[in-house]
Structures are given as C-alpha cells and as structure tokens.
Amino acid sequence: MTPPSSGVPEVVTSSTPLLAALSAYDVARLPRKESPHTTDARRRDVAALLPRLQRTDGAELLVADLTVRALRTAFADFSLDHARSSIARCWSTWNGFCSFLLAEDALAGNPMGGVQRPRPERHGPKPLRGERTAELLLTSVATRRPGARDPWPERDLAVVATLLVSGIRSAELLGLRVGDLAGAAGDHRLHVLGKGNAERSVPVEATLAEVLGNYLASRRARFARPATLPLDAPMFVDTRGRALTRDQLQYLVRQAYRTAGVHDRVARGALVHALRHTFATEVVAAGASAVEVMRLLGHQSLTTSQQYIDVAAQELRSAAAANRAYAALRDVRERADA
C-alpha cells in the first residue's frame, strides 16, 4: 500500500487505479489515529490479496475491477493457505475499503456482501500446559549453550520473561522503547501502547527489572555502545542491533520452546500468545478479578477478561471432582441403590 508516484487522487472514481484508491483510503483513515500494529496488519491484508486480483490481460487494476466474482475468487484462493482468523481479518480490511469506495460513489454497491466470511471462532485461553512448564522454559532460555550460533541468552531471557510475567502482546513488546521502562527501584513500570493506541502501565517487579537491566548491559557491551542508550531506542533488538521484528520474535519463542523441550505443551495456534495466556491464568489463580485482568492485559471488553475467570472456575471444579472421596461416595450410593 505504498502511495503511487502520482500521489493521492482528489476524486476516486470507478476508473481510478486501485493502488491510488488505496492511498486515498489510507489518507481517509488518518483521523482514526490507528496504532502501528493495526496499520501494519491492514497493509499485510491488502498486500496478500492484491496478487490474487491481478487481471488476466496484465492491465493495471482499477476500482471497477473490484467485482463480486473477482473478490470471491481471490478470497477462495487466499483461504487455501490461511487460518480462519486471518481470512476474517482480511475480509474486514477489504470490506472497509469497499465501504469507503461506496461512500465515494466509486462503486455502485459493496461487493464484499457477496463474499463469504468465516464464522467467528470461539477463542478460549491457551496457556502453556503441564506443571513447571514456565520454570523449565525460563531455565532453558537463561542457559548459555556452547556451540550455539551467536547466542544471546540475556536478550532471549528478557524477551520471554517480559512476555510471561507482564502479559503484554507481541506487538506491544516489539513497540517498546528503552524509555518505556520507568520508575524508581521497587516501583518499576512498563508504559505500553496497546490496541487502538490505548496506553497502560504494567507493574514490573524487581526480578524482571533486574533481568531487563542485565540484558541492556549486555547489549551495550555487545555493540560497544555508550553507558546510556537513547530513551527512544527500541527495547529489544536482533543480533545486529536492529529492532526485533515480528518474524524474529516468533522464531525466538518457537526455538525457546523446542530447546526447553516443552513445544508439545503449547496449544496449536498460540505460540507467543501462549505466554500472555499463561500470565492471565496465573494472576487469576492468585485471586485477580476480571476488572484487574482487564486492566493488566489491556482488554477493551470485560467479557474477554471474564473468559479467564470462567476457565479457572472450570479447572477448580474438575480438580475438586477428581477427589477420590467422590469415587468412594459414588460406590456407597451405588451399593445403597442396589
């Protein structure tokens, strides 16, 4: 969705090149003040579908080419190698764009109405499974392994620990700056920019503050940087000193699971998010209310936070039901009925 050299068109019509119309849509959305994560996700959805909309004659795509048939075919192809959630998000992106074109009178109707959208998945919490899994993971990540290519255990431990004990999202972690760790000793906090540019402050205990401090010290030594890093520098970087990317984060976490031997304890589709879910289930087990979970995780809906409370209640009920006294009681009742 890079704006074309011709600039943004003043008027969008059915004969406007599609890329120019997309640039106009970008401009129209500026007042929304979207977070970088939202903007990047929208641009990925556009980039993923554009090749599937190319005309057979090789001519430039126009707004008029956004027909029900063309979009239906493109989404059918897109759905072959994408998850339901990805298809639904991409559908929403293109539906928003087509609604914009409809408002501009560039389309007579919204063609996305003729494109099937997946039913919403019922997402429940997917924390790491098994006892001592988090402990095994952290211990493994902190261990310097001889023979590893360019190892940086201080950085890896800081990444995994931050996700595990703060509950922030992967995009929020990638957006952190050095100056976002603030506060005096004993009152450290992470200033996080969440969904919809909503800001929140996440408490950081002394242990995590120490881990982050050790990582930043190792970073200065690794790259021969001055004693103080710029406050606007990315908090987490790769082995070349560049801001850590989404793909690099996923690879780092996936390898951490495998090295620790706990990859089979990660629910399918969770990966990085499993650490956030583990944090949430742990704070609920410690007695946190749905409102407290909502504030800590940056949820926009109390209903989302309530899911963790409900799951915890179900687990407690299952644990209680496993009491061997229940089995003995059933035996007594069966003999009495006989």
UniProtKB/TrEMBL annotation:
<dbReference type="InterPro" id="IPR013762">
    <property type="entry name" value="Integrase-like_cat_sf"/>
</dbReference>
<dbReference type="InterPro" id="IPR010998">
    <property type="entry name" value="Integrase_recombinase_N"/>
</dbReference>
<dbReference type="InterPro" id="IPR002104">
    <property type="entry name" value="Integrase_catalytic"/>
</dbReference>
<dbReference type="GO" id="GO:0003677">
    <property type="term" value="F:DNA binding"/>
</dbReference>
<dbReference type="InterPro" id="IPR011010">
    <property type="entry name" value="DNA_brk_join_enz"/>
</dbReference>
<protein>
    <submittedName>
        <fullName>Site-specific recombinase XerD</fullName>
    </submittedName>
</protein>
<dbReference type="InterPro" id="IPR050090">
    <property type="entry name" value="Tyrosine_recombinase_XerCD"/>
</dbReference>
<feature type="domain" description="Tyr recombinase">
    <location>
        <begin position="123"/>
        <end position="321"/>
    </location>
</feature>
<keyword id="KW-0238">DNA-binding</keyword>
<dbReference type="GO" id="GO:0006310">
    <property type="term" value="P:DNA recombination"/>
</dbReference>
<dbReference type="Pfam" id="PF00589">
    <property type="entry name" value="Phage_integrase"/>
</dbReference>
<comment type="similarity">
    <text>Belongs to the 'phage' integrase family.</text>
</comment>
<dbReference type="GO" id="GO:0015074">
    <property type="term" value="P:DNA integration"/>
</dbReference>
<keyword id="KW-0233">DNA recombination</keyword>
